[in-house]
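Posting this for the archive.
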Amino acid sequence: MKEFLQKLIHAKAKQKDDLFMCWKEIQKAVERRNMQSVYTHVRLCFWVPKVRGKWSKKEEKKLVKLQKKYEGNYYRIARIIGRHPANILQHWRLMKGIHLNEGWQPKEEERLLQAIKKVHNGEYPNGVIKWKKVAKILKTKNPQQCRDKWQSTLKDTITEKSHDKLIVEMVYSTDPIDTEDVNWGKVAEDLNQTSFQVRRRYKQLEKTIPNFQLMDFQEILDSLYSKYFENEK
């Protein structure tokens, strides 16, 4: 089993085609991760560095030369130096004095969204995002931090906001008496969302109406409809 794992993870170029289906099956078991992401994570977990401990001056000089030659390809640099890719990246940042902020500021989140759109021709992509290019524009966060922020909060915010008007229109069109009278499953299906996501978002929209606590379901719905469609009458 150990030998198979080593072959699977460190396969040479000619062997990769034969092992493609194996990685494809592994990827199926991991939600929200593409095959390249799964492969990269597993390879990092099983990476056995030849060199550990304190960096020598000779190693640092070699790292500077390799960094210029391979421009941030830490896997390739790792194979030459013999250290773990994560250790190389960490030490390179230390050498360059790059100390990226841990927390996110509201303005920084906005700049992240702008960077994503800039990299992808003015739109938010539905597929793979080029995080290295995004981080290069943002400058204050690395690619992993940008990706994590997008996945944890910003992605849902963008998706939900783009659906707000449609959610209100679809709920209003069925003339429901109360929230239990709404076919949330149908609304969710049309928006390619889950019932939970759509219902949760509608609850959030209700709270945007002034004094919503003093209103019944139909009054809130009428107010939401007016909010989004009053200028179209």
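Residues 143-173 form the longest helix (31 residues). The mean pLDDT is 78.
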